[in-house]
Amino acid sequence: MLRKEVNELLTQTDVGTPMGEMFRQYWIPALLASELPEDDCPPVRVKLLGERLIAFRDSKGRYGLMDEFCAHRGVSLWFGRNEEDGLRCPYHGWKYDYTGQCIEVPSEPEESGFCAKIKLKGYPLIKIGDVLWTHMGEKESRPPEPTWEFATVPPEQTFTSKRWQESNWLQAMEGGIDSSHVSFLHSGSLKTDPLFRGAKGNKYNQADKKPVFEVTEHDGGLYIGARRMAEEGHYYWRITPWVMPSFTMVPPRGDHPMHGHFWIPIDDENCWAWSFDYHPVRALTPEERQAMIDGYGVHNQYEAPGSFRPRQNKDNDYLMDREAQKRGETYSGVWGIAMQDASLQESMGPIVDRTKENLVSTDNGIIMARHRLRKAAVALRDKGTPPPGRSPEHQMVRSAARVLPPDEPFAEAMKEDLKVRPGEKQTSV
Question: Alpha-carbon distance 112 to 70, whole Å?
Fold first, then answer.
């Protein structure tokens, strides 16, 4: 269990909180590039780390992310006119460029220099892969641009989605590094999901429901190893990399694309669950891409076009099917791997009370991740020490699955498997 004050430190991410300031040390995903598809397209509301922002793309294709509200009288710039290299407030015509700098106040004489004194808080917004990334910290502490493999392979090899999850970011992320629930919650989907089924490793998940966990540290986070029995006394290892503060990868299955997540706070009671699939050496097939669009694998279906709220949500009890649960088609009665996770994580409440939990050995990865997060947040707050996970080499990781003899520690035997190797396939079973 966690003490109340530690739970609050890890879950609160608004401006000025230790964890909020730590998130602001990283490049984090802000929007899908498809949300701003062309120059002068409509602006988009964005909420990250408790801040209400507006994103737009100007006439020269430059991306802007800034305070949502006009500095004049607080009108939401979502109503703004995106025109001629800037976003103009429709109330009194104040206009801002992509950095948040005011460039026109029609009511004031140009020679007064009034515009130069008005600037909204703004953040950089850059496109890497199919994601628009932002850094919400000080420019002086800005790390190198993201180098994640899913975002840097050719576009035909990758697919990214996001969904609104109605829970704190930490309980969502902790689900992403918990491999033990796969043998239960996702057991039906291992047989039916087109992005999972058919892999040899699935039978080990289904046969051994008591994985043994071994966790090792790396410079950017953790490698969380889940060990199950395979044939002839060998072990089936599934290794989940966690890179601070909230990047996780799902160990691969067969030649299926690899999956992973970012868990990004919207505010203390909501987060964005970013999900990606990619294959390091080949294009996604049309069938794989369509399955992702249809909500299979780690993705989901949406409540309405243009909405990032899942079709299955707490208002409709996630469309739970008790008969399918009884028949064993889905272990929990909820369709889809993503929503099986989200439904249970949201059921804990907006922020789970970790003072009441009872952890076991399979929670070692979660325990160590909490420890590293707390330690890094405190070091940043008290000493100004930059947190781990910001360097390009920290981001060049892969998940992996492999069968090993019992006397081979995964940390040594799979050392190279857990690194990005351009032009080489993932290590999978």
Answer: 20
Of 241, 271, 22, 317, residue with least CA distance to 162: 271
Distances (CA, A) of 418 to 22, 225, 428: 26, 11, 11
| Residue 96 near residue 103, CB atoms below 8 Å | yes
Radius of gyration of the chain (CA): 23
In eight-state DSSP terms, residue 402 is E
Instruction: Concatenate the DSSP letters of all residues of 94-127 into one string.
Output: -EE-TTSBEEE-TTS-GGG-TGGG-B--EE-EEE
Task: Please count the other Cβ atoms lying within 10 Å of the Cβ belonging to residue 299.
Answer: 27
Cα→Cα distances 134→123, 142, 148, 396, Å = 7, 10, 15, 19
Q: Distance between CA atoms of 151 and 278, rounded to whole angstroms?
A: 9
Task: Evaluate whether 197 touches 203 at the Cβ level (below 8 Å).
Answer: no
Backbone torsion region of residue 77, taken as left when φ is above 0, otherwise alpha when ψ lies between -120 and 50, otherwise beta = alpha
Work out the number of other CB atoms within 10 angstroms of the CB of residue 415: 11
Chain segment 319-356, per-residue pLDDT in tens: 999 999 998 889 999 999 999 999 999 999 999 999 99
332-363: string of b/e by CB count within 10 Å (b at 16+)?
Answer: bbbbbbbbbbbbbbbebeebbebeeeeeeebb
Using CB atoms within 10 A of its CB, is residue 139 exposed (0-12), middle (13-18) or buried (19+)? Answer: exposed
**Rounded average pLDDT over 161-166:** 98
- Asked if 245 and 23 count as a contact pair (C-beta separation under 8 A), the reply is yes
Residues contacting 389, CB < 8 A, separation 6+: 26, 220, 221, 243, 244, 245, 247, 395
How far is 345 from 269, CA to CA, in rounded Å?
A: 12
SS3 235: strand
Q: Quote the CA–CA distance of 204 and 297 in Å, as a whole number.
A: 19
Is the peptide bond prior to 252 cis by the omega test (within 30 degrees of 0)? no
**pTM value?**
0.95
Per-residue model confidence as pLDDT tens digits over 290-329: 999 999 999 999 999 888 999 999 999 999 999 999 988 8
Q: What mean pLDDT comes out for the span 40-63?
A: 98
pLDDT at residue 179 greater than cutoff 80: no
Rounded to a whole number, what is the distance in angstroms from the first to the last CA of the chain? 35
pLDDT of residue 178: 85
Percent of the chain with pLDDT over 90: 92
Edge-to-edge order in the sheet of strand 131-135: 27-32, 131-135, 125-128
